[in-house]
Write the C-alpha cells for this entry.
Amino acid sequence: GGVRRTGKRTLLLVACALLVCGCALATGIKLWDLKVGGIDGTLAISVQRNQNESTLQREAGTGWGDALDQALVEHDIRAAVPKWIPEGFELVELNVDDEYEIVDIDAWYENGEDVIVFSIIQVQEGGIIDAFYEMNEETLRVETVGNLEVYFFSNNARNSAAWNEDEYLVYFSGDITEQEVEKMVQSIFSQE
C-alpha cells in the first residue's frame, strides 16, 4: 500500500506542476527564459521565449538610417540597440536569417582596420537560443543600465557588451575602447 500511495502522490504532484506551468505559459507569464553563466573563458546566455506578444513599446531600429536600421524596422525588431556608434564606422556587411525559430541580424562595421560586429537575435514563440561569447574571464562585469542587465567583457583586444530583453539577445564587439562601449550602451536610453 505505501509504494502505491507514494506513486499516486508523485503523479499528482507532477500533474499539478504541469498544470501550473501550462496555465502560466497560456497567460503569458515567462518561465525559464534567461540563463547566464561564465565558464572557462566563455560567457553563455540562453534565452527561451514562452509567450507570443512582445511587451516592448519602443520604435524598431537604430535611427542610423543604414541597412541595419532598415532590417530592424522591416522585421519589427524592438530590441534595445545603441543609438550612437563611434565616428568613422561604416556598414560593410549585413546578414539576416529568419528561417527557423529566430530572427538573427548580424552587421559588420569598419573604420580602416577597426571593426564593430553586431548580433541582434529575436527568439520566436516557443524558440530557444544559446549564445556563447569568448572572453577574458577577469574582464566580465555586470551593470544595470536603464532597465537592462548588461554584461561587459573583452576578448583579447576587442571590447564587448551583451544583454537580453524580453525575446531579444543583443551583442556587439569591436576594436573600440571600454569607454566607447559604455557610451554605446548608454545611448540606448539617451533622449537625443
About this structure: The first strand starts at residue 34 and ends at 39. The first helix runs from residue 2 to 26.
